[in-house]
Amino acid sequence: MKSVRLLFSLLLIALITGCAGYRLGPTNGSGLGERSLQVIPFVNQTLEPRLSDAVTQQIRKQVQKDGTFRIASHDDGDVVVSGVLVTYERQELSFSPRDIATVQDYRVALTARVTAKDRSSGKVLLEQNVTGYTLVRVGKDLVSSERQALPLLAADLAKTITALLAEGSW
Q: Is residue 13 part of a domain?
């Protein structure tokens, strides 16, 4: 009976101390929703249409889901995020077993040059290239397959951007 109590006590101590480093909320030192964020529509410099709206919408959605920042909609955000979509690349991943020239899957990458500035001081808080990826399975035609994968690509890019903003040490 003593060994069962000892084992239970050790297990309880391990559980309590194992979670001691876990922290809820933002990891950058600011309070939850303490600062507001304004997302300016991204500029599309790629040859692929309709990317700007999808990326901007997904960033706003991810910021709301994350909760570190509040979304500001009328030029009143503490932090202003803008960006330029610079590259859209498609890389072959797999080919048809019956025809080695026919691609079955592509890996699509979208790279954006993201800038986050403090509105009051003008200080640049974040400025770097960020890339999002998704897989495109080619159906009957590549254009419609890529169009269907566009929200997934924008969401992956937005998750990475939101994580960089939320974990920033400014």
A: no
Largest CA distance in the chain: 73
16 within domain boundaries: no
- Number of separate domains in the chain: 1
Say if CB 60 and CB 39 are below 8 A apart.
Answer: yes
pTM (2 decimals)?
Answer: 0.79
In this predicted structure, the answer to whether residue 163 has a pLDDT above a threshold of 90 is yes
In which domain, by residue range, is 45 found?
30-166
Tell me the helices (H) and strands (E) count for the chain, helix number first. Answer: 3, 6
Q: Is residue 145 part of a domain?
A: yes
Rounded to the nearest 10 degrees, how much is the dihedral formed by the CA atoms of 170, 114, 111, 47? 170
Question: For residue 109, what pLDDT band results from cuts at 50, 70 and 90?
Answer: very high
